[in-house]
Amino acid sequence: NTFKRPQLAPTVQLRCWRFAGVVPRLLWNSTAQRGATVPGARSSVSSLVNSHPGCKTGELLLCSRFSSAPPSTDVTYEQLKQLLAGRKAVVIDVREPWELREYGFIPGSINVPLGQVNTALQLGAEEFKEKYGGEMPEQTENIVFTCLAGVRSKNALDTAASLGYKDVQHYSGGWQDWVKNEQHK
Questions:
Q1: Which of 13, 36, 153, 163 is deepest in the core (most CB within 10 A)?
Q2: Beta strands, E only, 112-181
Q3: Annotated catalytic residue, options 16, 55, 63, 147
Q4: Does residue 55 have an active-site annotation?
């Protein structure tokens, strides 16, 4: 019986731990099924007993897939265009203002530099609009963060999620992908 590692997306890492002898009571008594997810967590857990070639008798192997974000948080160029056209998302560009002046910006986006996202998302609606020139997103509204290439927007997504925003996404291609796609039209 050969253990085959599942094919994972490039942003997903597979980490395995072996628990020989004593298995933590929480895991032992857990009613979670193989492949189940923990509510509010960003990982899924698989339990395999004695099916991995390196496992000894009575050893429990736990494989947990961790990704930097749930797969549904990434937005493509086409999806972003649709969201903007239908006004179905608040698009927040987390680059610095000089970057927008020098390189350009996605029409309809609001500029909130990454270092200000935490504070900005806790402002009152009027203060947010006065400072950033756009409507303050509600915690239930769809927010799409963007930046140059997807790194800062992912950090902003994590910040918003930690503040209780429910429907947060990021345009992982960022401004670089936007420009490339716009030039091909």
A1: 153
A2: 142-146, 167-170
A3: 147
A4: no
Give the CATH number for residue 140.
Answer: 3.40.250.10
Residue 24 placed within a domain: no
Q: pTM here?
A: 0.63
Q: Pick the closest to residue 171 from 163, 162, 184, 181 (CA basis).
A: 181
Q: pLDDT by residue for the chain (185 residues), tens digit each?
A: 554 444 444 443 333 334 333 333 333 333 333 444 444 444 333 333 334 444 444 444 343 334 344 446 899 999 999 999 999 999 999 999 999 999 999 999 999 999 999 999 999 999 999 999 999 999 999 999 999 999 999 999 999 999 999 999 999 999 999 999 999 87
Residue 17 in any domain: the answer is no
Q: Is residue 21 part of a domain?
A: no
Could you give the CA distance from residue 6 to residue 115 in angstroms, rounded to a whole number? 38
